[in-house]
Write a structure and sequence with these properties.
Radius of gyration: 28 Å
Helix content: 55-70%
InterPro entries: DUF4037, TPR-like_helical_dom_sf, TPR_rpt
Structural class: mainly alpha
Number of strands: 9
Pfam family, one: DUF4037
Strand content: under 5%
Keywords: Repeat, TPR repeat
Protein name: Tetratricopeptide tPR2 repeat protein
């Protein structure tokens, strides 16, 4: 693919790849072609060529569900773009979008959100308000919000994308990107129980494909799957089956039997079974455009509706979102129509990552649940989600139909499962099927007590082999006012954890109140998963506790570096010199806690949350450190080494250790680790513009940091 100038032929590469996709040969020919092209671009040392190929390869691997293969490519693409000096250009923006989308597809949500935020910041400087790449960014950011159960901002991002696309399109009525956005908006609206609106958007997406003669596009499969889901919610099982069948055929033709095919096949099988149980016959495809049928809403007798609900109760659905993949090179960054739909799936047990799942049609009662078996291997969050989907949601639809669009559900708060750190050992206490229901104050006053009674008495006490905890079987700390599940008003729930019904916010006069909320408390208030939140009020309140004002965060950073310096740089060596090993060891403990907190704060709570209480501090720090874009990702390992050698350093004695060298070598290693971490902290402070000093004794950095604090209540005494 080289030419006489010994450079990579980008145009020839793109044309060849287009030909493969146009011939529907991607399943067998795309990867060898892409890998050969990447080898050629590397051989020629052509950075622009490498970046072009890598971005195409990112999209292809994402379409194949090969997300682990994408992770090193994300790093390489960002490094290449920086080496080429693309930062500050539109190509840098699209490289960030591609990297973020790959991370999102891999379930690396924190990394993806940071990259999307970087892309938004870059887009403000490099893209016009009507640039279609900006629409792709909003579209893909919406998918991330959806996959993390933030449906209100997800809908807002999609509407921004739709506005940009319709404004910039030559013919919006035949624009595939407009169709993709309609499909994604339909899926979001289904989660909010706005089925009528969802059906309109899903059907419009298919009409766009028809008008534009785009039915052979791989993206058509996602639009069909989205329409099928909307039909299922509306009780149109015949159209749901037909749409899934057609979607499956398109996927098989374009991609073969990949993850998308498997997910869609499972959905089709489930819908066909539901249709059979409900007595709905589905004719063979006659080639008609069934999505133009005006009878989008199911109309029938109550017995038929009940049969459909009952037939569907046992199924959970996997949703296909369609992203707008971008390509980027030194020469150009443009939308690529050839990459397939980006499918996000939650398995029958519920993905711990919180992927978007739309549940089955409402059942008439909560009694028909999966049979109890031996305890399966399942996390607490997964168990909670299944208990909600199979038992809680149908009960609410049956007994509180006027409130099903107002009640939030999920699992947040105290308990290892809320952090995602539970294991087999965790099941010896307070581990059971459970979830929380959150109501507005007004709704709680009306139905709260009755709903709590129904939660305790109507939901099954055996589920998936686990026994529901009662007041008699729960530990005292999980009873009464400290109960961890059931029905709450939103304000009462957060007040029970934090002492505040809502976060102090950005009011400078309340800034000091943030300092009364320790990080472990904030972690408990913002952990877990939200399974449903049609009003968005619970998620908004929860997010408020993550939106720590930057001045407060800076004040805490100052406090942390003060303790890091005092405990690690000053007191540890002095206590060792005095021979007080106990005091020295306590100094190490304070240093470790302050450093772990600093790492979380410098990575910003709005993105990574807060450091949980001591029991899970290192589990959380290890998880954070595995993130691709995590700052100070090496510190966790250093802290663990520090703790491991502290015994020898503090209590080694004269004859302790190999060769009788005593504590000296361990003390030296402790001091080296402390110095190295303090050096890293200075680098991070300078990166954020919080200091102009190179001083590594951190106490002397505090005046520089606090120059950025205006509120006198936040400054150190």
């Amino acid at each position: 693919m080289g030419n006489e100038a010994n450079t990579f032929d980008v145009n020839g590469f793109i044309q060849g790849l287009d030909a493969i996709f146009s011939a529907h040969d991607a399943a067998t020919k795309a990867e060898p072609y892409l890998l050969h092209a990447l080898d050629e671009a590397r051989r020629l040392n052509d950075d622009a060529g490498q970046l072009t190929v890598i971005n195409e390869l990112l999209g292809f691997y994402r379409s194949q569900g090969r997300h682990a293969d994408n992770l090193p490519l994300v790093t390489e693409s960002l490094e290449l773009a920086k080496r080429m000096g693309l930062e500050g250009s539109d190509a840098w923006t699209t490289t960030l979008i591609n990297a973020a989308t790959a991370m999102r597809a891999a379930g690396k949500y924190d990394d993806a959100e940071r990259l999307y935020r970087d892309a938004l910041e870059s887009a403000e400087k490099t893209l016009s308000p009507t640039d279609r790449r900006l629409a792709a960014l909003h579209n893909n950011l919406s998918i991330l919000y959806s996959e993390t159960n933030r449906y209100e901002p997800a809908e807002q991002e999609l509407r921004k994308a739709l506005h940009i696309l319709e404004s910039s399109s030559v013919n919006a009525a035949e624009d595939v990107d407009v169709a993709s956005t309609h499909t994604n908006l339909a899926l979001i609206l289904l989660n909010a129980d706005r089925d009528d609106e969802a059906m309109k958007h899903a059907a419009e997406a298919l009409r766009i494909y028809k008008r534009g003669h785009l039915e052979n596009s791989a993206h058509f499969a996602s639009a069909l799957a989205g329409y099928a889901q909307a039909c299922f919610h509306a009780g149109r099982l015949d159209n749901a089956v037909r749409a899934y069948r057609k979607s499956l055929a398109v996927i098989e033709e374009c991609y073969g039997h990949n993850d998308y095919y498997t997910i869609t096949k499972e959905n089709l099988d489930a819908v066909e079974q539901a249709a059979a149980k409900a007595g709905v016959s589905v004719p063979a495809d006659d080639g008609s455009d069934f999505w133009n049928d005006d009878s989008d809403q199911f109309v029938g007798d109550s017995q038929t509706a009940a049969r459909i609900a009952g037939a569907a109760q046992e199924f959970d659905w996997r949703i296909a979102h369609e992203d707008q993949p971008m390509t980027s090179s030194a020469a150009a960054a443009k939308a690529s129509p050839k990459q397939g739909p980006d499918v996000t799936a939650a398995n029958a047990a519920g993905e711990a990552a919180g992927a978007t799942t739309t549940s089955q049609a409402t059942a008439s009662s909560a009694s028909a649940t999966p049979a109890a078996t031996a305890h399966p291997s399942i996390s607490g969050l997964e168990l909670a989600k299944q208990y909600w989907l199979h038992c809680g949601k149908p009960m609410i639809a049956d007994r509180y139909p006027n409130y099903k669009g107002r009640i939030a559900a999920g699992l947040v708060g105290h308990g290892s499962e809320c952090y995602g750190f539970d294991d087999a050992i965790s099941q010896d206490h307070d581990f059971a099927p459970r979830f929380c229901l959150w109501l507005t104050d007004e709704d709680y006053a009306t139905i709260g007590e009755r709903l709590q009674h129904d939660y305790e008495t109507l939901l099954p006490h055996e589920f998936m082999g686990f026994t529901v905890k009662t007041a008699d079987s729960s530990t005292p700390r999980a009873q009464g006012a400290n109960r961890r599940e059931g029905v709450f008003s939103i304000g009462d729930f957060f007040e029970g954890i934090t002492g505040y019904r809502e976060a102090p916010g950005n009011d400078p006069s309340k800034a000091h109140e943030w300092l009364l909320l320790d990080e472990a408390t904030l972690a408990a208030a913002t952990n877990g998963k939200v399974f449903a939140d049609p009003l968005g009020q619970f998620s908004k309140t929860r997010q408020g506790f993550k939106n720590m004002p930057d001045e407060v965060r800076i004040a805490l950073l100052s406090r942390r570096i003060g303790m890091i310096s005092q405990a690690g740089q000053y007191n540890f060596p002095r206590m060792i010199e005095r021979g007080d090993g106990a005091a020295a060891w306590l100094a190490i403990d304070e240093f470790v806690k302050a450093t772990a907190s600093f790492v979380y704060l410098v990575n910003e709570p709005i993105t990574v949350g807060y450091l949980p209480y001591y029991k899970w501090s290192f589990a959380a720090l290890r998880k954070l450190s595995r993130g691709l874009a995590t700052r100070m990702s090496d510190v966790c390992e250093q802290l663990e080494t520090l703790l491991r050698i502290s015994s020898a350093a503090c209590y080694g004695g004269a004859g302790f250790g190999e060769g009788g060298k005593g504590a000296g070598p361990a003390v030296k290693q402790v001091n080296e680790i402390v110095d190295h971490i303090c050096g890293e902290i200075v680098t991070e402070l300078k990166r954020d513009g919080l200091t102009r000093s190179d001083e590594t004794f951190l106490e002397w950095q505090r005046p520089y940091v606090e120059e950025h604090i205006v509120n006198p209540w936040l400054k150190s005494l």
